[in-house]
Specification:
This protein is an all-alpha fold. 85% of the residues lie in helices and 0% in strands. The protein has two helices and no strands.
Length: 156
């Protein structure tokens, strides 16, 4: 039993010496270190909060950009449809234009033909008028002389 109480006494002395040794340290250095760690921790918390705020702002911006991209994709599909419709209209207008160019060429040719016929008719009228005038100016004994237009006369 004596050994048993000797162990208790030794443990008690060892504990007392440990407590006395720990209390001998400079408390100001420890408290300074604790304050420094608390300040550092406070700074880290502030940085964490600001990073969370920035993260939330970036998340909102990302959501807005995704919505704009989706709207752009929808607009793009609408624009693609409009582009296809306009291409069809352009093709139709091009065909109509080609048809109108052909019609204008035909009408121009018809006009030129009518103009040349009209000029020929005018020449024939002038020739006829000249013949009538010559017949009136000359005293022809027969008033029943036949007047034949120049276009129908057989002059070779």
């Amino acid at each position: 039993m004596r050994n048993f109480s000797l162990i208790y006494v030794a443990a008690f002395l060892l504990s007392a010496m440990g407590v006395w040794g720990c209390s001998q340290q400079k408390t100001s250095a420890i408290s300074a270190k604790v304050t420094e760690l608390e300040t550092h921790y406070a700074k880290l918390e502030d940085e964490h909060r600001s990073l969370q705020v920035h993260h939330d702002q970036h998340r909102k911006k990302l959501t807005q950009i995704e919505n704009q991209r989706n709207a752009f994709a929808a607009d793009k599909s609408v624009l693609e449809q409009e582009k296809a419709e306009l291409a069809k209209q352009l093709e139709q207008i091009s065909r109509d234009r080609a048809t109108l160019v052909k019609q204008v060429a035909q009408r121009t040719q018809e006009r030129d033909t009518a103009q040349s016929n009209l000029m020929q008719f005018g020449k024939d009228l002038q020739a006829l008028a000249g013949r009538v005038e010559a017949a009136v100016n000359t005293n022809s004994p027969s008033p029943n002389a036949a007047i034949i237009p120049a276009s129908r006369s057989k002059t070779e």
